[in-house]
Specification:
By secondary structure, this protein is of the alpha+beta class. The protein has a domain at about 1-55 and about 75-95: Alpha-Beta Plaits (2-Layer Sandwich), CATH 3.30.70. It has helices spanning about 15-35, 60-75, 80-85, and strands at about 1-10, 40-45, 50-60, 90-95. It has a 4-stranded antiparallel beta sheet. The longest helix is centred in the N-terminal third of the chain and has 17 residues, at about 15-35. This is ABM domain-containing protein. It comes from Nocardioides gansuensis.
Length: about 110
């Protein structure tokens, strides 16, 4: 599977940025990526006060390359860059070796 990681530093980000990012994901970003053509799934990860990250898994090389190219061109003006006050510190393609679903199952939602 074809992954892409986009990470922003939260060092020096405005106070309240963690809550603002969580609201942005719940109110806007989750809906944008739900059902997106070429995307298998996306997760949003954070270490409050340290970093915020989007992890994408794409269905094809073309889908990942198209998204990465388009995103990279406007990364500094992306909604998360505006919220955090800085452009991503990492935009990195990777391979996803495997995904396992545990006994408790998978939950998808804008706020977990």
């Amino acid at each position: 599977m074809l992954g892409l990681t986009v990470r922003w530093s939260l060092a020096g980000a405005p106070e309240g940025v963690d809550a603002e990012l969580a609201s942005y994901v719940a109110e806007t970003s989750h809906a944008r990526f739900t059902g997106m053509t070429g995307l298998r799934f996306k997760t949003w990860r954070t270490r409050p006060g340290e970093w915020f990250e989007g992890c994408y898994v794409f269905a094809s090389t073309e889908a990942r390359e198209d998204f990465q190219r388009t995103f990279t061109q406007g990364a500094a003006e992306s909604p998360v860059s505006k919220i955090t006050g800085s452009a991503p510190v990492l935009i990195e393609a990777c391979d996803i070796v495997a995904v396992a679903e545990g006994e408790d199952g998978f939950t998808a939602g804008p706020r977990l």
